[in-house]
Design brief:
With 127 residues, the chain is an alpha+beta fold. It is built from two helices and six strands; from the N terminus they run E-E-E-H-E-H-E-E. The chain has a six-stranded mixed sheet with strand order 1-2-3-6-4-5, with helices on one face.
């Protein structure tokens, strides 16, 4: 199977040697998205805004592929402080209302750019 690199100007550029996403067959693996503005690269202020922007960035990548949130089958959420779990859940739940994907959520000691949250996911093209 061919590996296709995915890139869109509607999401922040990679800040290291990685791709925004990789498509292999009908699977798409999205790299972790911080709550950074796609144009400036600056982080939004606070956990709510960063979580929303992270999910917006994921949405932009999905849209560039002709997909949407309903195609996401697995997410991993990395949070700086697990005390923010309920707040992240509230924002996350506003996006993934029905048939939410499988998910893991872990607290980490530090994220790039000192972000408060990072979300990665796997999506699948419908057959």
């Amino acid at each position: 199977m061919e590996k296709v690199i995915v890139s869109t100007e509607l999401a922040p550029k990679a800040i290291g040697p990685y791709s925004q996403a990789i498509r292999v067959g009908n699977l798409v693996f999205l790299s972790g998205q911080l709550g950074a503005d796609p144009q400036s690269g600056d982080l939004k202020e606070g956990i709510v805004a960063q979580t929303q922007q992270s999910l917006d960035n994921i949405g932009a990548i999905l849209t560039s592929l002709g997909l949407n949130y309903s195609h996401v089958v697995k997410t991993t959420v990395f949070v700086k402080d697990l005390d923010d779990f309920a707040t992240v859940n509230e924002v996350y739940g506003s996006i993934f209302k029905d048939a939410a994907p499988a998910r893991s959520c872990v607290e980490v000691s530090r994220l790039p750019k000192r972000a408060l949250v990072e979300i990665e996911c796997i999506a699948i093209y419908p057959e």
